[in-house]
Amino acid sequence: MNFSLSEDQALFRATVERFAGTGDVDKRKISRRSPGGVDRQRWAKMAGIGLLAIDDRIDCTVIAETLGISVAVEPWLECGYFPLQLLHDELHAADVTDGSVVAAVAFAEPGRRYALEPHNMRASQHDSGWTLSGAKTFVLGGAAADLFLVTAETEAGSALFSVEREHIDARHYAVIDGGLAADFTLRQAPASMISNAVWSDAVADTRLMAAAETVGLASRLFDETLDYVRQREQFGQAIGRFQAVQHRLVDCYTMLEQMRSSLWRAALADRSTGWHANMAGAKAFICERAIHIGHEAIQLHGGMGVTDELVIGHAHKRILLLSKFFGDPASELACFAEAA
């Protein structure tokens, strides 16, 4: 398969690389200490160079993969791309696109692991508008969000609503990649219905971007490990000269190429019957192999591989988080198999 980028896509990649840098660990830690876990100045800068305004699926795949290679700390996926797939031309879309508003999507509910449809969050319509009552959990980016997009059950079925931050009293906590998520309970909170949101399409597209970022992260893990085994010496020679180490790295390289092929096959696929399940299958396939590459990278780095002092630890933790976004590999493969 030809992985060559167009001139515009190469420009996107170069722009992202200049913005995100090389995954400096100290800068990541400083950014994570910002209110809500998001550096608003860098978020505005990211929006200013257009990374939130691009909506072409292929171009966004390039952006997501490059953010993964850079081990970027900004939650482009969960607070930018995903909300904008739901908002489209709604009132708040322009504010999210220009970086003045950070949005988060609240779909997970307590006790309903990997269920994507709402059940406990209920929407009621009154003369003055809609209100929401119920609980949400694992809202990625929820500590920094100004706007929450909340799935809820109505008499006519599930729907999406926007809720301003002032109406939400959230509990914040750290997740594995160092970001902050939120849990909250609403009691007759005022909300506005987002009428043109297509939930299944947004989830499928976001799964693709999560897979793209995962490919970038795995690529960074492989490159860092390859450099390390060429330098680390044992018994008078670089450990990369040991055949056992070479075999393990060849396996990782093969997996990485399989992941990249699967990613672009999914990205270039037509939106036909079974397209949503195919995105789930691609993400599951990619995440399983990325986790394996992460384990190998950590083991080959030795004891320091598990510390936060090396970028590989941060990259692997991000992979673990993305592998659970919308469902773990087993549940997403089950979704794919059911459709097949």
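Second entry:
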Amino acid sequence: MSHWIDTHCHLDAPEFAHDIDAVRADARVRGVALCVLPAVAADHFDGARALAHRLGDAYALGIHPLFVPQAGDDDLQRLDDALTRWRDDPCLVAVGAIGLDFFVPALCEPAMRARQEHFFTAQLKIARRHGLPVLLHTRRSVDAVLKGLRRIEVPGGIAHAFNGSEQQAGHFIERGFMLGFGGASTFDRAQQLRHLAAWVPADRLVLETDAPDMPPHWLYRTAQQRTQEGLPQGRNTPAELPRIAEAIAALRGLPLAALRDQAQANACQAMPSLAALLS
């Protein structure tokens, strides 16, 4: 029997501090057997690892581009040291989340863009040295991320929350990467993304929530609703993964079970250590 795997969710985020056990239990009842918790900063490494062990999940370690401005010059060494220290930990499955973000204006300033690229390149080299796949953040930066991957080959991984073109998707696929799809695929207006979710080859698609972020349409509140009606933004959780998968299965014209089977196999191919955790 196959299971749902949430390949990217931040259960160590503050939004879950008060009810994380209930959140994870709810997801498990809905068939989400494994969640991958990507750390986003060096100060989060210990916490992400401890939480993954407590919840029976997996984790990845990396310095996210949104956290590069706060990162210290020694944080890359801290990452290398942590991967060495925990190299025999079966719950450690990848380096991530790493990548580039050219959406946030402050991160596009020349000095910060250069610092992002320095951290990304260094983390690719670290992943290669440790023989680990990578979880990639590619917001408005797909071509630049691909350029880095051409220079520094790593053992595959996932382009998280993919929202590029077919051609860009093809370049990731040629390099052995999976493409991650989640709640954004449930919005009718996201026509290009929904086209991609239907188009991507079956053996290249993985599922994710990016919880507590990237809520599906049934949890989303517009800025007007939040401001004028006082409605909170819906918190995404791993329990939403099966319903998100229903929307993607419908786009692909697949039975839900077939998508679940394929997505599990793809996740285990992208992060081989997951297979032992499932068993």
